[in-house]
């Protein structure tokens, strides 16, 4: 019993000594505050809307890729812009006496990219060339709680002689949204909680026309802030996988982007027809 009491007494004595020491230090302490300061400026945007392009691969957090010039376009504003919007290339198709649908025939080639080295796309430099399905990407670096939307429309197809195809239209579906911040912990995460597509039945298409802008992606109401400081993508593909190489043959089998050509439009054989596809990125209040 005496040994137990002695242990307790020593413990009390030590604690008292620590408390006295701490009291003496507090009595002599002084504090002062200084300032840490930083001002953020917007990034400098690219100078050529035609590319080449550098962006984050859809479905990843920080896997940078480069796409060659001429594959699409980008806007040049630094802090809120399209980093990539695609062309729609349907290749050469056969004139028919019945209505026809033609799938997209072109995939988007890309290589790995180092932002410090700025090693732009060069198929001959040894880096592996892979391919992506059609997609668009928006970068939002404004640091504001503002919601936004993306819309698109397309003019009538017309050839070099001025002949128009009255009812030939580009049709799109399978609107998969991705955001690189969501992909940090789990790659290729569905971003539907912060980014919405048109919300169509999976078997239905949107037809791009010249008389109306069609909204194809928007921030979910009150979720605009969650896209700040990030890159958001919209992928026109029904089952996008990060590991797959979507070459032209793979894209041609997919019906997410197609061209509808009614027989009554009677395209001129041997002529190339083009349509101006206009993409718009804007704030919504």
Give a quick rundown of the structure:
Helix content is 11%, strand content 32%.
Walk me through the topology:
Layout: H1 2-28, E1 53-56, E2 64-67, E3 72-73, E4 80-86, E5 100-103, E6 108-112, E7 130-132, E8 135-140, E9 147-154, E10 157-159, E11 164-165, E12 169-172, E13 175-179, E14 195-196, E15 206-208, E16 214-219, E17 230-236, H2 248-252, E18 257-261, E19 273-274, E20 277-284
Antiparallel strand pairs: 1-2, 2-6, 3-4, 4-8, 5-18, 6-7, 8-17, 9-16, 9-20, 10-11, 10-19, 12-15, 12-18, 13-17, 14-16
Describe the protein in words.
This protein has two helices and 20 strands. The chain has 285 residues and is mainly beta. 11% of the residues lie in helices and 32% in strands. It has helices spanning 2-28, 248-252; strands at residues 53-56, 64-67, 72-73, 80-86, 100-103, 108-112, 130-132, 135-140, 147-154, 157-159, 164-165, 169-172, 175-179, 195-196, 206-208, 214-219, 230-236, 257-261, 273-274, 277-284. Strand 10 (157-159) and strand 11 (164-165) form a beta hairpin. Strands 3-4-8-17-13 form a five-stranded antiparallel beta sheet, with no helix packed on it. Strands 1-2-6-7 form a four-stranded antiparallel beta sheet, with no helix packed on it. The protein has a four-stranded antiparallel beta sheet with strand order 5-18-12-15, with no helix packed on it.
């Amino acid at each position: 019993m005496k040994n137990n009491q002695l242990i307790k007494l020593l413990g009390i004595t030590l604690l008292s000594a620590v408390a006295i020491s701490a009291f003496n230090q507090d009595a002599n302490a002084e504090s002062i505050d200084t300032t840490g300061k930083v001002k953020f400026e917007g990034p400098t945007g690219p100078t050529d809307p035609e590319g080449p392009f550098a962006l984050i691969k859809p479905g990843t957090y920080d896997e940078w890729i480069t796409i060659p010039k001429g594959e699409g376009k980008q806007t040049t504003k630094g802090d809120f812009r399209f980093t990539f919007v695609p062309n729609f290339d349907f290749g050469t198709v056969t004139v028919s006496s019945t209505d026809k649908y033609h799938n997209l025939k072109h995939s988007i080639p890309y290589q790995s990219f180092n932002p410090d080295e700025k090693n732009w796309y060069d198929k001959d430099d040894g880096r592996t060339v892979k391919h992506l399905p059609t997609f668009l990407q928006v970068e939002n670096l404004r640091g504001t709680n503002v919601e936004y939307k993306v819309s698109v429309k397309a003019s009538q197809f017309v050839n070099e002689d001025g002949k128009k195809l009255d009812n030939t239209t580009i049709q799109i579906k399978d609107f998969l949204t991705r955001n690189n911040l969501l992909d940090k912990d789990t790659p290729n995460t569905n971003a539907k909680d912060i980014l919405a597509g048109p919300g169509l039945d999976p078997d239905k298409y949107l037809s791009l026309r010249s008389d109306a802008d069609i909204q194809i992606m928007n921030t979910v109401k009150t979720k605009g802030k969650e896209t700040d400081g990030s890159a958001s993508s919209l992928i026109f593909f029904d089952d996008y996988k990060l590991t797959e190489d979507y070459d032209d043959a793979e894209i041609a089998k997919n019906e997410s982007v197609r061209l509808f050509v009614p027989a009554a439009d009677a395209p001129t054989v041997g002529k190339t027809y083009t349509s101006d596809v206009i993409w718009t990125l804007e704030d919504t209040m």
